[in-house]
Amino acid sequence: MAPATTAVPPAPPGTPFAIRMREVTVRYPNGVVALDRISLDIEAGEMVSVVGLSGSGKSSLIRTINALVPVTSGELEVGGHRIDGARGRELRAVRGQIGMIFQGFNLAKRTTVLNNVLVGRLSHAPWWRTMLGAYTAADRRLAFEALDRVEILPKAYQRAADLSGGQAQRVAIARALTQEPRLVLADEPVASLDPPTAHAVMGDLRRINQDLGITVLTNLHLLDLARRYGTRLIGLRAGRIVYDGDAASADDAVFEEIYGRSIGAQDVLEK
Ligand SMILES: Nc1ncnc2c1ncn2[C@@H]1O[C@H](COP(=O)(O)OP(=O)(O)OP(=O)(O)O)[C@@H](O)[C@H]1O
Ligand SMILES: [Mg+2]
């Protein structure tokens, strides 16, 4: 395969990632087209909410940007790195700089909060050090800073199994931060949380965006959260972008257009 060409040079160290998609289609092996010729530019440092009905392609979009799902056709660049057509080592290097946040937190329950957060350093460590499980003083400082940033430092030596859902999600955010990510992708990060906790977690994501300048893209099914915490709103329907605009000014009519149905109590956090 010819070396991948990039339209823009790779982002310099430490700067947030931009995302560039041109006519990106993702077809799963079973024939389902999850993304249908998506063209999209997300600037470095943006805070984007993605909404759409179940099955509209939100998770597929995140998994494609993170190179977990291959691009079937079209061009995808993340932080100036060409993702479509790239190979394992290159993809791992880009993926190591992308923090992922999931609905289910994905923590190792039997070990401490601190150990869970230190895992974020593994993508930066040489393989022999990850085998030894030996972290440097700098790794530990990053982990403590991240725990402090999401206000969960006092829990550092507690077992992850003993956390509430909101605390677990904040630990997952701290783990992503310890990676020193240049992009954070969050897939329904507050779907299983009560309203005050959901606001706290979304507030953390917003602070990461505003204070650290990291590009953040969050899939949400609660429209009031999408409007309040995103600066830009992208609406997906059947794998296509049907809305792309300012989040704050998106009213119910915009959401009804995206969803193709009227908006009900199940679509908002604050009933
Ligand atoms: N691994 C897969 N293999 C085959 N089809 C898949 C796979 N993952 C998702 N799909 C299909 O792709 C389409 C988009 O799914 P996706 O999970 O991206 O939607 P979503 O918007 O995240 O939905 P939800 O709100 O339910 O999480 C759906 O039709 C789904 O069934
Ligand atoms: Mg999903």
From TrEMBL:
> Domain ABC transporter, which positions?
19-263
InterPro entries cross-referenced by the UniProt entry: AAA+_ATPase, ABC_transporter-like_ATP-bd, ABC_transporter-like_CS, ABC_transpr_PhnC, MetN_ABC_transporter-like, P-loop_NTPase
Q: Which UniProt keywords apply?
A: ATP-binding, Cell membrane, Membrane, Nucleotide-binding, Translocase, Transport
Which SUPFAM superfamilies does the entry mention? Answer: P-loop containing nucleoside triphosphate hydrolases (SSF52540)
Q: Which domain of life is it from?
A: Bacteria
GO terms under cellular component: membrane
- Record has Cell membrane as a keyword: yes
Q: Which GO terms describe its molecular function?
A: ABC-type phosphonate transporter activity; ATP binding; ATP hydrolysis activity
Q: What is this protein called?
A: Phosphonate ABC transporter ATP-binding protein
